[in-house]
């Protein structure tokens, strides 16, 4: 493969992934009860994995290594991106993929003397997580209300503030602000991942993300070395995802 092919590959992948996401979002919008049967193949699609790699490698956290000591630069220089993604795809497709324990660091919490946990998965685990996000996000986006702004693409806190100002200039008189202490530390994962009755697509998507959610939680696994690592019990649900029925990621 020549240099021009290498530089063009991400652009081709980006266009194709955008087409896939557009279709998923349209189908989810058209039928709230639609059952998505081929999600796992999309997660392991070479273009989706390449775009997931681009996002991981382009993030500032790419310089931070997980428990295996590998950074994005290490993959590029010592392994090669093409080989790295091919091997990762093979592991996913043959159901042998097993995430490694998540490296944990305690970092200062802005505006206070408290410290919070920062989980650092391996580069491979981050790519799989990013691939899942690329596939699942357009499906779940169809279910969110227009007034929801948190952790959504092309939305930010400033947008929420602008709408609050707009509504306040009309007939609205009250603004309620709340915060849940250590929300992601204390939230019930079983309740969060329960898609509710009559929602095949949410059930499939929920099972797909179940392992990642568990792997990111510092209190729900087996600690390995004090506060330095924790084991993502349940992360390996990806490896058996395709064995639970006809739904690709379920």
Give a description of the structure.
By secondary structure, the chain is of the alpha+beta class. It has helices spanning 3-30, 39-43, 46-57, 72-79, 81-93, 123-141, 157-168, 183-186, 189-193, 200-215, and strands at residues 102-108, 115-120, 222-223, 229-231. Strands 2-1-4-3 form a four-stranded antiparallel β-sheet, with no helix packed on it. Helix 1 (3-30) packs across helix 3 (46-57), helix 1 (3-30) packs parallel to helix 6 (123-141) and helix 3 crosses helix 6.
Helix percent reads 40-55%
Largest sheet: 4 strands, antiparallel
Average pLDDT taken over every residue: 77
Strand order of the largest sheet: 2-1-4-3
List keywords for this structure.
250 residues; alpha+beta; 10 helices; 49% helix; globular; disordered C terminus
Any chance you could write out the topology, listing elements then pairs?
Layout: H1 3-30, H2 39-43, H3 46-57, H4 72-79, H5 81-93, E1 102-108, E2 115-120, H6 123-141, H7 157-168, H8 183-186, H9 189-193, H10 200-215, E3 222-223, E4 229-231
Antiparallel strand pairs: 1-2, 1-4, 3-4
């Amino acid at each position: 493969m020549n240099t021009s092919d290498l530089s063009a590959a991400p652009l081709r992948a980006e266009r194709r992934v955008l087409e896939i996401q557009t279709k998923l979002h349209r189908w989810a919008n058209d039928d709230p009860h639609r059952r998505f049967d081929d999600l796992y193949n999309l997660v392991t699609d070479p273009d989706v994995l390449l775009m997931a790699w681009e996002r991981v490698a382009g993030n500032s956290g790419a310089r931070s290594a997980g428990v295996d000591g590998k950074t994005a630069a290490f993959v590029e220089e010592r392994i090669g991106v093409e080989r790295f993604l091919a091997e990762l795809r093979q592991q996913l497709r043959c159901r042998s993929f097993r995430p490694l324990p998540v490296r944990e660091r305690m970092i200062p919490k802005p505006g206070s003397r408290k410290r919070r946990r920062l989980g650092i998965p391996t580069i491979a685990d981050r790519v799989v997580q990013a691939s899942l996000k690329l596939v699942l996000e357009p499906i779940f986006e169809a279910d969110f209300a227009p007034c929801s702004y948190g952790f959504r693409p092309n939305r930010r806190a400033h947008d929420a503030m602008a709408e609050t100002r707009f509504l306040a200039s009309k007939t609205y008189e009250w603004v309620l602000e709340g915060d849940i202490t250590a929300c992601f530390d204390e939230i019930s994962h079983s309740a969060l991942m329960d898609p509710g009755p009559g929602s095949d697509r949410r059930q499939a998507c929920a099972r797909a993300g179940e392992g990642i959610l568990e792997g990111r939680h510092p209190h729900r696994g087996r600690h390995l070395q004090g506060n330095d690592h924790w084991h993502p019990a349940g992360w390996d649900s990806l490896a058996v995802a395709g064995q639970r029925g006809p739904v690709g990621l379920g």
